[in-house]
């Protein structure tokens, strides 16, 4: 059974779009916070999710952001998350997160096979990351 390691509340700030002759792209700028057992902190400025329609007709997404806060031991740290995935034909978002961190307590997550889900919220989305 998968264990949830992070729950990240994302607030969408702005969406920038370009529509080309073949395809389009959207860059969604965001901030937010994480308040879970493993980590408490906030998303630093610069969080962006880039979305494009793939050749298979599914929307491909790639979000990148850095969170700053404290790990479960109380030590200050930063966590970089790259979350790649796609929006399925049924509207579900399935992702494969990759994590880098300067937290000794959470460094093991850099080698874990992680999965993610995304659900809507009034201000944006909630990202759930599982190991």
Largest sheet descriptor = 9 strands, antiparallel
- Described by the principal axes of the CA atoms, the overall outline is globular
* Number of self-contained structural domains: 1
Number of E strands: 9
- The radius of gyration is 15 Å
Judged by helices, strands and strand pairing, the structural class is mainly beta
Structure annotation, total helices: 0
| Arithmetic mean pLDDT | 93
Portion in strands: over 45%
Topology of this structure?
Layout: E1 4-19, E2 24-35, E3 39-43, E4 47-53, E5 59-71, E6 76-87, E7 93-101, E8 115-120, E9 124-130
Antiparallel strand pairs: 1-2, 1-9, 2-3, 2-4, 3-5, 4-5, 5-6, 6-7, 7-8, 8-9
Provide structural commentary:
By secondary structure, the chain is an all-beta fold. The protein has one domain: Porin (Beta Barrel). It is 0% helix and 66% strand. It contains no helices and nine strands. Strands 1, 2, 3, 4, 5, 6, 7, 8 and 9 form a nine-stranded antiparallel beta sheet that branches. It starts with a strand and ends with a strand.
What are the main properties of this structure?
mainly beta; Porin; 9-stranded antiparallel beta sheet; globular
Task: Briefly summarize what is shown.
The protein is built from no helices and 9 strands. With 131 residues, it is mainly beta. Strands 1, 2, 3, 4, 5, 6, 7, 8 and 9 form a 9-stranded antiparallel β-sheet that branches.
């Amino acid at each position: 059974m998968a264990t949830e390691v992070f729950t990240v509340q994302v607030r969408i700030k702005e969406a920038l779009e370009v529509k080309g002759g073949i395809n389009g792209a959207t860059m969604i700028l965001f901030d937010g916070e994480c308040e879970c057992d493993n980590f408490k902190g906030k998303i630093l400025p610069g969080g962006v999710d880039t979305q494009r329609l793939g050749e298979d007709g599914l929307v491909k997404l790639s979000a990148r952001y850095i969170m700053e806060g404290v790990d479960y031991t109380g030590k200050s740290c930063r966590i970089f998350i790259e979350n790649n995935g796609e929006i399925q034909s049924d509207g579900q978002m399935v992702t494969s997160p990759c994590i880098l961190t300067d937290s000794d307590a959470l460094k093991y997550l850099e080698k874990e096979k992680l999965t993610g889900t995304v659900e809507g919220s009034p201000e944006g989305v909630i990202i759930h990351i599982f190991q």
